[in-house]
Amino acid sequence: MASRQQLTEQEVTEQEPKEVGEQAMGPAVLASAASVGLSLYYFFFRGERQLGAFIGLWPPTILAFASYFNQRQMQKQLNTLTQPGTTLKNAFDSMMGNR
């Protein structure tokens, strides 16, 4: 028979982790793909190579901003788990209900 500690660890490991950046990366990827398409349109079909190259620089910038905001959100969540003055072990213990 498994102990209570082993059961709670097993329940936690079986749950799928919720991704932090799902809501932010979806629109960013869509906007990046659209700007790549727009860049190709201007570069090849309209013949405006300079404008096409300029628009081609947008996707990395859009994805960099999305990544930055995801990291800020993860940092906020981590700060709420490990409030100032507590150790990481105490935060995990309180999160897991071992106190």
TrEMBL record:
Keywords: Membrane, Transmembrane, Transmembrane helix. This is Uncharacterized protein. It comes from Natrinema halophilum. Residues 1-23 are annotated as: Disordered. Residues 1-10 have a biased composition (Low complexity). The lineage of its organism: Archaea, Methanobacteriati, Methanobacteriota, Stenosarchaea group, Halobacteria. The chain crosses the membrane at residues 24-44, 51-69.
